[in-house]
Amino acid sequence: MKGNVLVVDDDRDSAEVLCDLLISRQNDAVAVDRGDTALQRLDEGDFDVVITDVRMEGMSGIEVCQKVRASHPDVPVMVITGQADVETAVAALRAGAWDFVTKPLNADHVMAAVARAVDHRRTRSEVRRLRQALAATRPIKEIIGDSPSIRAVTELVGRIADGDATVLITGESGTGKELVAQAVHSLGPRKDEPFVAVNCGAVPANLLESELFGHVKGAFTDARRDRPGLFIQAGRGTVFLDEIGEMPLDMQVKLLRVLQQRSLRPVGGDEEMPFYARVVCATNRDLESEVDEGRFRQDLFYRVNVVTIEVPPLRSRGSDILLLAHHFLKRISERTGKAVTSISPDASRKLLDYDWPGNVRELENGIERAVALARMSEIQVDDLPAKIREHHSTRLVIEGDDPSELVTMSEMERRYVRRVLDACGGNKTQAAKVLGIDRRSLYRRLEERSRD
User: Fold this and answer.
1) Virtual CA dihedral for 421, 426, 429, 430, nearest 10 degrees?
2) CB-neighbour burial class of residue 201 (10 A; exposed 0-12, middle 13-18, buried 19+)
3) Residues of the chain with pLDDT under 50
4) pLDDT tens across 349-395, in order?
């Protein structure tokens, strides 16, 4: 990692030797002999790191640390101190120094420390740039991210929020489908009305009808009074049916009728009641495949799938991972009162390299664990969960010239289809789109591969 370094030392010979070393390793380096001059140069130019001697005439290295920390908090400061002067080094660290090196200088140690400092500064600068870009363009504050895939989601949410069309939100578990549903609600004219959510897979099948449509007194044991269901409780707001793919088939028939008629009959009741809420649904299942396999009604699928919003998996969102990680870090640190304020470059790379099968929910959990274990103000690789620390990316690679190591076209196709299906989280519809084939062709190939 090559950087632009400002050296501060009133010993010109020492400063020149250090600059020559930095330049010989392809860095840019400038030397000044006074602390106030260093601060002026920082205001005029873009430096990645400051290296200052501790003992100087006029402004000391400790004061340089304090002033750089106050005026340019993103620029790390390294101090040079005598080997026996441990107390001074500790004082410099307390004053805001990022690191220190001891005399006599070891070239490899100095360059390794500079590389870490430059990497640290550029990582923090990139996160800050992303935050600023996000703040300037993000229409929905609850949805954090600046990647093309998440921008497509926020754009679509903005376009449909004012309407009444039924919305189907798809995506893997943990991607934030309920946040998208809340955004559809809060950006539209229903924002001051109730947002009522129910997880269709979490309510027992025999109670789901009553939960959604209500019941009258005496409809069943313990029904001691009339109770309006969620469709009525929502008023003119929004009903969010999470994990609609888990709904039993007999209940799907009843829901279809309610959506078609825009009215419902409470359990045990005789009278139809109109409802006025907007309906937003979500699922982590591939509903088209569920229809093909007879587990989801086709007519209901078309009724709820008027507008589809596909929430991308975290692994496909690039630098959004770091934006979300810092968002969770700030929130968790404030809640726990623990002063953990940043993520080291090495830990950031581990976060970017990991596949995140649990998506945003798993990332939040990982950051919470890292904050709990952190011994410094910066999260290190060792603070991350083991599966993130030890993860190695898997890629389809063809290499080698030995014919015995090569595979047949059929085997290569099998591996590629499996790789795409894994990358799509098992969603056959999405995998078929990536492969450029229809779903039936994908099913046929999967069946052929299983027979092989």
Assistant:
1) -60
2) middle
3) 136-138, 394-400, 404
4) 899 889 999 999 999 999 999 999 998 888 999 999 999 998 875 44
d(C-alpha 219, C-alpha 346), whole Å: 61
Nearest to 268, CA basis, from 332, 192, 215, 314: 215
> What 3-state DSSP class applies to 264?
strand
What is the b/e burial string over 98-122, where b = at least 16 CB atoms within 10 angstroms of the residue's CB? bbbbbeeeeeeebbebbbbbbbbbe
Which structure tokens are listed for 183? 């955004």
SS3 51: strand
pLDDT in tens, 189-226: 999 999 999 999 899 888 899 999 988 887 677 777 88
The tokens describing 182, both together, are 């809340």
Residue 354: closest CA among 393, 396, 395, 320: 393
Amino acid occupying residue 216: V
Buried b vs exposed e over 345-365: b needs ≥16 C-beta within 10 Å?
bbbbebbeebbbebbbebbbe
Q: Are 442 and 432 in contact (CB under 8 A)?
A: yes
Q: Which residue has the tokens 């019941």?
A: 215
Q: How far is CA 166 from CA 109, 153, 350, 408, in A?
A: 62, 16, 39, 47
Residue 157: which of 280, 284, 328 has the closest Cα?
A: 280
Whose structure tokens read 């400002």? Answer: 6
Residues 6+ apart with CB under 8 A from 411: none
Mark residue 55 as left, alpha or beta (left: phi above 0; alpha: psi -120 to 50; beta: remaining).
beta
| CA dist., res. 59 & res. 82, Å (int) | 18
Using CA atoms of 444, 446, 450, 452 in order, give the dihedral in degrees to the nearest 10: 70
Distance CA 109, CA 212 (A): 66
- Of 42, 83, 29, 38, which Cα lies nearest the Cα of 61? 38
Instruction: Give all domains of the chain, ordered by start, each with its CATH number.
Output: 4-133 (3.40.50.2300), 148-310 (3.40.50.300), 314-389 (1.10.8.60), 403-451 (1.10.10.60)
